[in-house]
Specification:
By secondary structure, this protein is mainly α. The chain has 17 helices and four strands.
Amino acid sequence: MNYSLQYIRIELKRAAHALMSGMVTLIIISVITLGSAAALYTLLQSLGISEPVKIAVSTPGEGNMAKLAIRLLKGMDSIKVVCEFELADEEDAREGVYNGKYGAAIILPENFYEGVNTGVNPPALILIPEEMTDGLKSFGDLLEASVSLVDTVEGGIYAVSDAYYTYGMYVSKTDMENYLTNLSFDTLLNRIKFFDEELETSLDVDDLISYAVVSACLLILLVTCTGFGYLYSKRTRSVEYLLKRNGIGPVKKGFVRLFVMMLQLFVIYLIFMLVVFSASRIMVSSDKETLVLAGKSLKEALDTLKAFGNVIPVLFCICGFTHFIYSALGSREDSGLILLIVFMIMLIVGGCIVPSVFLPDSIENFGAYLPAALWRNDIFSGGLAREIIMGTLFFAGGEGITCLYT
């Protein structure tokens, strides 16, 4: 037992030395990567390269009203970067959703326009596939926001009608309803104001700042893992013999490595939380409204990072994966570089650096199952069982490879 504790103490001292010596490199790599990702994301967003979802619209009769509405929607930048509307009959719309030609379909009933004019509000049928891409989720968010706005306006018009007939009003009912209608359309068509007040995102998080903060945290943790190669460096035969003689074999060394990596990642995680907390406090105390709003968003992101019950299993899984890769690579000098390349591919394809809504559907569907995408999602929503199972399998695989080599 004393030899095991002594071995842990030695590895912790090596970890502290490696952490201090590699801190500058870690900061430089993280800043360059985050800056490149921010520039790429800004470029993609400004160019509108995100792949829009094709939406089929089936209307009764000739669909002249629908054509006017579609023409209006196609002129809005916030709409056309998310979805592309096409007129189709009901049969083609249903078949298109089934075979993947359309991401979704909106089918209007026969009496739709008459019902709207008379206040009956006939329901429209919306068809969506079971497996939704991020682009389709964006369309769903957009649709929910529009429905919510219409419901609010409708409630206001009905309230005006009730107040007019019950209590009487100095302003005519028609003028008040027209005013509410114009106000609602002004809000809807003023897309900058509308989307600034209610940020729509397909990332299953509260806002884009939370997404960026968690992605940056994950990036820094994974870059830190590329510096753990010293734990797997080849020792001299005399040192290996001395370790085996004192009961420290491959399995025990594996557990010590896992413990040291988790402890070091947890320290990095706490430092990152401290940086986010300090930045949020500075921004909130600023005189500029934009900085204050950003600071409040950082504070909400910090609440996500405080969920240690979600984070610790993710750290365990990350360390298990790192142990597996280093064990498979052996004592190669370029093992850290290879691990960095693996992590970068997972981060990009998994939508952790650039949101997957900007990626083709095939890459998006594949990247959703990569470990990096699961790690990011589980920091938000928590996946205790999944992360523990994955981490255990990765660690067991690494131990199996180590025992096979030795």
